[in-house]
Design brief:
The chain is built from twelve helices and 18 strands. The radius of gyration is 22 Å and the shape is globular. Strand 15 and strand 16 form a beta hairpin. Helix 6 packs parallel to helix 7 and helix 8 packs parallel to helix 10. The strands form five sheets. Strands 2-1-3-4-5-6 form a six-stranded parallel sheet, with helices on both faces.
Length: 436
C-alpha cells in the first residue's frame, strides 16, 4: 500500500482511448486519486502523474496507444507514467519497453492504481508490471464518467463470454459480470443529485447484465432505471441483437425516460460471415428487431455497427451484406475495417481480404450511411424535439442532442448549457451533420 502522504499537492493528467466504458473508468480512477489529494492538471501545467487508459480493439488502436504514451511522457517530463486498459492487459511487456513508462497495470487492478503508485521510485528504474491472468479477472467495479454536466456514462456490466472469432476483448476484460440493480440505481441517483440530465448505459455486453445476481437481467434494470427521478433520459448503449428482446423494445416505446435510440452491432449482413464470426444471431433476427423498433418508434435513431473485410468475407458475401443493409431502415452505420489480432480464431479462416478491397467496401458503406443519416435528419424537420444543450462553442454555435439523437445547433449561450428546450428544427445544415 502506498503512503498517501506522497500524493499531497500532486497533479495528474489523464488520457483515454477507445470506448465510452474506458471514459467512465478513467473518471473513476480520477476520483480515487482526488480522494488521495491528487488533483487534475490544469492547462499548461506539468503533471506529476500521467494515466493512460488504453484500447486494443484493432492494430490501429494499439498504435494510437503507443503514440499517446510517448506524447504524455513528452508533455509532462519527469512525471510518473501509468498505462492501464485493454492494451496493458494484452501486451504488458510491449508497453513496458516504451521509454518513459513506469507502471503497467492490467484490467483487474486498474481502478486500484493509487495502491501501486511508487512516486519515490527512481524514474530510470524501468517499468513494473501488475497484471493477472485473464481467467482471474472476476471483479465488477462500478464506474461512471462526470466529464460533462449534461451526459454521464454509467458502467453497468463488464467482460464478455461470447468469444467471436475476430475479437480480443474477452481476453482483455475477462468473463461477463455486472453490478446489482440496487447498486446501479443508487449510482444513477447520485449522478442525478450532481445535476446530470442524461445517462448512457455502457459495458462490454450490456444485454448480458445480471451475471452473479439471480433473478436480475437487463430488462429488469431498464425498468428500475426508468423510475429514477431527476434524470431526463437514459440511453441504452451498444446491445447485441439477440439480447435486445422484443419486451425491451416494446417497453422502451412507452417508457418515461428510455430514449428512442438504439445502437445494435450487426457486423455483417451475410449469414455465412456471421457464422464464421461465431455471432449468436442471423440476419432474419436482426431485421426483425430493427423493423419492430421502426414500427413502434418511427422516429427512433438506429445505429448499426458493421465490420468490412473480415477473414472469409468473399466478394459475394460483401454484396449480400450491402444488399441487406440497403433494404434495412437504419439511421446510421458505424463502419470498421477488420484488423487481424494475434491469438484470435479468425486467423485460421483461409480467405483474406486485401487492404484495397477493405477500403473500397468501407467507402461504399460510408456513402450509404451518409445518405441514410441525412434522410433521417430531414424526416425530423418540422417535428418538435426535446434538446439538452451541451458544452462547447463551435464558431458561435452550441450543440445539443434530441431524445432520438439528432444533433441540433443554436447560437451559443453559456447559460443554456445543461438546460432542456422544446424546439422544432426547420433546416439541415449544408454539412448534413446537424439541424437548426
Amino acid at each position: 500500500m502506498t503512503d498517501t502522504s506522497v500524493f499531497e499537492d500532486k497533479k495528474a493528467a489523464y488520457y483515454t482511448l477507445g470506448c465510452k466504458l474506458n471514459f467512465a473508468e478513467t473518471s473513476t480512477i480520477g476520483r480515487s486519486l482526488l480522494a488521495q489529494g491528487v488533483r487534475s492538471v490544469r492547462p499548461r501545467e506539468v503533471a506529476d502523474i500521467c494515466v493512460i487508459n488504453t484500447c486494443s480493439v484493432t492494430e490501429l488502436a494499439d498504435k494510437k496507444c503507443r503514440t499517446m504514451i510517448r506524447k504524455a511522457a513528452r508533455e509532462h517530463p519527469g512525471s510518473f507514467v501509468v498505462v492501464t486498459g485493454c492494451y496493458a492487459q494484452l501486451s504488458p511487456e510491449e508497453i513496458a519497453d516504451i521509454e518513459g513508462v513506469h507502471l503497467v497495470i492490467g484490467s483487474e487492478k486498474k481502478l486500484d492504481i493509487a495502491d501501486y503508485l511508487d512516486l519515490e521510485r527512481p524514474r530510470d528504474a524501468g517499468a513494473s508490471i501488475v497484471r493477472g491472468r485473464t481467467k482471474d479477472i472476476r471483479t465488477f467495479r462500478l464506474s461512471s464518467s462526470s466529464d460533462e454536466r449534461t451526459r454521464h456514462f454509467l458502467k453497468v456490466q463488464d467482460g464478455c463470454d461470447y468469444h467471436c472469432t475476430y475479437c480480443t476483448i474477452p481476453k482483455a476484460r475477462g468473463r461477463s459480470r455486472s453490478g446489482s440493480i440496487a447498486e446501479i440505481v443508487a449510482e444513477a441517483e447520485r449522478i442525478a443529485r450532481e445535476g446530470a440530465r442524461e445517462i448512457v448505459l455502457t459495458g462490454v455486453n450490456i444485454g448480458d447484465f445480471g451475471k452473479g445476481h439471480p433473478g436480475e437481467d437487463f430488462f429488469a434494470l431498464v425498468k428500475a432505471l426508468d423510475e429514477v427521478e431527476g434524470i431526463e433520459r437514459f440511453r441504452i448503449g451498444s446491445i447485441e441483437p439477440n439480447l435486445l428482446s422484443e419486451e425491451i423494445i416494446r417497453y422502451s416505446a412507452t417508457s418515461r425516460r428510455i430514449a428512442p435510440h438504439f445502437h445494435i452491432p450487426l457486423q455483417s449482413g451475410s449469414d455465412e460471415v456471421l457464422r464464421l464470426m461465431k455471432r449468436r444471431y442471423d440476419t432474419a433476427l436482426f431485421r426483425s428487431r430493427v423493423e419492430l423498433i421502426r414500427e413502434l418508434m418511427p422516429h427512433a435513431f438506429i445505429g448499426v455497427d458493421v465490420i468490412v473485410g473480415t477473414r472469409g468475407e468473399e466478394e459475394r458475401y460483401f454484396e449480400e451484406c450491402y444488399q441487406f443493409l440497403e433494404d434495412l431502415p437504419f439511421s446510421q452505420l458505424h463502419v470498421f475495417s477488420y484488423s487481424e489480432r494475434e491469438g484470435t480464431a479468425a486467423l485460421s479462416i483461409e480467405h483474406a481480404v486485401t487492404p484495397r478491397d477493405k477500403h473500397k467496401r468501407s467507402q461504399r458503406l460510408a456513402r450509404l450511411s451518409e445518405e441514410r443519416l441525412q434522410d433521417f435528419y430531414r424526416a425530423n424537420l418540422g417535428r418538435e424535439l426535446t434538446v439538452i444543450w451541451e458544452h462547447g462553442n463551435y464558431d458561435g454555435r452550441m450543440m445539443g442532442h434530441s431524445e432520438n439523437y439528432i444533433r441540433v445547433a443554436q447560437p451559443y449561450d453559456e447559460a443554456a448549457i445543461g438546460t432542456t428546450t422544446r424546439i422544432t428544427p426547420q433546416h439541415l445544415d449544408e454539412s448534413g451533420t446537424f439541424v437548426y
